[in-house]
Amino acid sequence: MTGICAVVLAAGEGRRLRPLTELLPKALCPVGNLALLDHALRRNRNLGVDDVAVNASYLADQVVAHVGGRAHLSVEPDGPLGTAGGLGRLRGWIDGRGVLVGNADAYLADPRREPGKDIAVLLDGWTGDTVRMLSLPVAPGDTGGFGGRRFAGFSLLPWRYVRDLTAEPSDLVRLVWRPAEAVGELELMAYDGVYIDTGTPADYLRANLHAAGGHNLVDPAATVTGACTESVVGRNATVGGTVTRCVIWPGATVAPDEDLHDVIRAGARLTVPAV
């Protein structure tokens, strides 16, 4: 799409998902047997935004190897720079264009539209003058957010809001979204699907179960000799026992004598409760 590029923010440490993120950066954690980062890249591709950058810092070598030549890579070697600092480091690459910014850990799903088309509202009719934010109504009792709505993983920024960002630790809330709101230049674009911030084990499990649609989602290369109910089982995983509402990571093992409920299993024995 002419005049628009995209940045997928994938540098975070994912501290709330530890110990899972001691094995994988959060952006590579699988949801519905597809890495979160791949969900974001597919969404941009389907939207018609082909020039995409991915930033990386925590376990950056894994992100770099996973992305390969599919996107421009920006590695932050001294630790994550935050949402605004990451864009500041990419200013030369963005180079005057509007930029669609998405969080790699955002799970979005709208059964009526394919990924990408579901967030097309961000680009439709955009003049290049305003900051646009994909948004949902705030939950009852929530006093945060923007104009009674909350951020849903993606925003669209004009170049004039990006050109002065620097590669210093900083965030878009403070440097872009609130200033745009203060001068009436923040447009809150409604998202009609499901949005889940996958930052905690409970929400990460919830996103996986939503992707499974109330059924089992088992990779063809997994081996299941036990019993699965409403679970996601990754590539080369082995399930010999019973799993209910679980995520079994690629290559993980559930022994025949195990009965797991509402957990994430990685490897042979790492079990993270998600309730």
Quick recap of the structure?
The protein has helices at about 35-45, 60-65, 80-90, 90-95, 160, 170-180, 200-210, and strands spanning about 5-10, 30, 35, 50-55, 70-75, 100-105, 105-110, 130-135, 150-155, 185-190, 195, 215-220, 225, 225-230, 230-235, 240, 240-245, 245-250, 255, 260, 265, 270-275.
Task: Please provide a written account of the structure.
It contains 7 helices and 22 strands. Helix 2 links the parallel strand 4 and strand 5 (72-75). By secondary structure, the protein is of the alpha/beta class. The protein folds into 2 domains: 4-196, Spore Coat Polysaccharide Biosynthesis Protein SpsA, Chain A (Alpha-Beta Complex), CATH 3.90.550; 200-273, no CATH class.
Layout: helices, strands, pairs:
Layout lengths: L3 E6 L20 E2 L2 E2 H12 L4 E5 L3 H8 L4 E4 L6 H8 L1 H4 L3 E6 L2 E4 L21 E7 L11 E9 L1 H4 L9 H11 L3 E5 L3 E4 L3 H12 L4 E2 L4 E2 L2 E3 L2 E2 L4 E2 L2 E3 L2 E2 L4 E2 L4 E3 L1 E4 L3 E4 L2
Parallel strand pairs: 1-4, 1-6, 4-5, 8-10, 12-15, 13-16, 14-17, 15-18, 16-19, 17-20, 18-21
Antiparallel strand pairs: 2-3, 6-9, 7-11, 8-9, 21-22
Helix pairs in contact: 3-6
